[in-house]
Design a protein that fits this description.
The protein contains 17 helices and 7 strands. It is of the alpha/beta class. It has 2 domains: 59 residues, no CATH class; 257 residues, Pyrimidine Nucleoside Phosphorylase, Chain A, domain 2 (3-Layer(aba) Sandwich). The longest helix has 14 residues.
């Protein structure tokens, strides 16, 4: 009996090589390149090499441009999810989003740009739309971005919350969004309307059933171009560390990371707010203790859009169950954005703004 040969030792024949070459040629250059990139992130713990910054940019741009098929995109996103993207990979993907996405400017004014999870909120009542109105009323340009109901949580979205307040951002051309930013200091780009290339990934995200690296990217990217403070929400400490490194490599020089409610940038009222300010490569950990400033309100549970609309409109008048949380967040962000020299002084101004119903007056202007 002839001994069995070790198949691993069987040499590759010219026929094998020709077949592989023919198959790659049939796939086309974009799909063939993307297959190589999948191999680099999906080869396993010991053989995966990861992507360089330029390769990560290539990968995201191939997906955004629709040059690869759904199976490849799904394979790439779930493989990247399992091994977690490196900071340099996030930077490369950020390069791609900056090149392909919409652009807003604030004509030399420094903006506050918020990055929060696109899959929304489902447990606690959001504050960001109310906060954005109050900050813009104070003269601080605020730039937001979001999308439609998104896997995996399908929580309430920023656009739906603003609609409940009477302010629609969906279905508008980017020029109109820019005009609102110019005249009123507030903007929200909506992915289906203003970044359709990224919207093509939503069906793939739904199919894989897990948050892919693109979800981390959305916390780091902003459509704003110019001087800004970038505010990015996070949940897990490793996510925060990766964000610092990725943004530093992308020349983002003023960053605030916030361990907010459900991964958002909403500061809690029942525990210390954990934040970090990174300026010119120097990190300062900032802990914000609401009880030290007389803030004792419980977090408000999310019970539906109708209840939130009622409470949100009341909070803009300094009333109702969300008022104290809005006061705390408004004061904290006025201070963190360098508007006032101390948190105490910023909180005083926040009280004055709510008492004067400044955010509510801006809401009325925008809905007129």
């Amino acid at each position: 009996m002839q001994p069995l040969r070790n198949s691993a030792a069987v040499p590759t024949t010219d026929t094998d090589h020709d077949r592989r070459s023919d198959r790659l040629q049939a796939m086309g250059p974009s799909r063939a390149l993307f297959r190589e990139l999948i191999g680099k992130v999906g080869s396993g713990e010991h053989t995966s090499t990861g992507l360089s910054r330029s390769e990560a940019r290539q990968a995201i741009e191939l997906m955004l441009q629709g040059l690869v098929d759904d199976a490849q995109m799904g394979a790439f996103l779930i493989a990247h999810r399992i091994r977690r993207p490196s900071p340099q990979e996030l930077t490369g993907m950020l390069d791609g989003y900056r090149a392909q996405g919409p652009i807003l400017t604030t004509s030399g004014r420094r903006a506050l740009c918020f990055g929060v999870p696109y899959d929304g909120r489902s447990r606690t009542a959001p504050l960001l739309p109310l906060l954005a109105l109050a900050l813009a009323a104070e003269g601080l340009p605020v730039v937001l971005h979001g999308g439609g109901p998104m896997p995996v949580k399908y929580g309430i979205t920023l656009a739906e919350l603003f609609e409940a307040l009477g302010l629609e951002w969906r279905g508008l051309p980017l020029e109109t969004i820019q005009q609102r930013l110019d005249h009123h200091g507030l903007a929200l780009t909506h992915q289906p309307d203003h970044f359709p290339a990224a919207e093509r990934l939503v069906a793939i995200r739904d199919a894989i059933g897990k948050r892919p690296p693109v979800a981390s990217l959305e916390l780091l990217w902003t459509p704003h171009q110019g001087e800004r403070l970038l505010v990015s929400g996070f949940v897990h400490p490793p996510t925060e560390t990766r964000a610092w490194e990725a943004l530093a490599a992308a020349d983002e020089t003023d960053v605030l990371t916030v361990k907010g409610l459900e991964g958002s940038t909403d500061l809690p009222t029942t525990r210390a707010g954990i934040t970090a300010r990174v300026r010119q490569g120097e990190m300062e950990r900032i802990l914000l203790h609401p009880r030290d400033h007389g803030i004792t309100a419980a977090e408000v549970v999310w019970t539906g859009l109708d209840d939130w609309r009622r409470d949100g409109l009341a909070a803009l008048r300094g009333e109702g169950p969300l008022a104290e949380a809005l006061l705390w967040n408004l004061g904290a962000y006025l201070w963190l954005s360098d508007r006032y020299p101390s948190l105490e002084r910023a909180l005083e101004q926040a009280r004055a703004l709510l008492l004067a119903r400044s955010g509510e007056r801006l809401r009325q202007k925008l809905t007129a």
